[in-house]
Amino acid sequence: MHSVNAVFLLGDSVLNCMRFPLFRIAYFVLWTGIFVIFQWIIHACINLWWPYPFLDLSSDYAPLWYLGVGLMHVPCYGIFALIIKLKNFWFSRSFPESYRRLR
């Protein structure tokens, strides 16, 4: 499922001309926080399987896993921001008369 989401995200990014300012890393952090809190609430009320085994709080290494996943958002955000910058640079050079980036 993550691969399909990545394809849709990159496709949407290539087809639009919106800016991607630095403050939008907050969306990455907020979405992850909401997902984690939702999973904690669900698993506190109902005995279900965890969507990712490393999220299971019964493991001694769970805090390290949560920290690692949280820190992985930084390079992922940076890679995505770089892709957007490269797209804007390439489109403005390849299509100088027709490509217009929103300001």
Characterize the structure shown.
With 103 residues, the chain is an all-alpha fold. The protein has one domain (2-94). 66% of the residues lie in helices and 0% in strands. It contains three helices and no strands. Helix 2 (25-45) runs antiparallel to helix 3 (62-94). It is elongated. 0% of the residues are buried.
Brief descriptors of the model:
103 residues; mainly alpha; elongated; transmembrane helix; transmembrane; membrane
Distance between the termini: 33 Å
Note the run of SSEs as H and E. HHH
Number of domains: 1
Number of strands: 0
In percent terms, what proportion of residues is strand? Answer: under 5%
Average pLDDT level: 87
Task: Please estimate the helix content.
Answer: 55-70%
The radius of gyration is 18 Å
> Segments where pLDDT lies below 50 for 5+ residues?
none
Number of DSSP helical runs = 3
Structural class label: mainly alpha
Characterize the biggest β-sheet.
Answer: none
Shape: elongated
Describe the structure concisely for a colleague:
The protein has 103 residues and is an all-alpha fold.
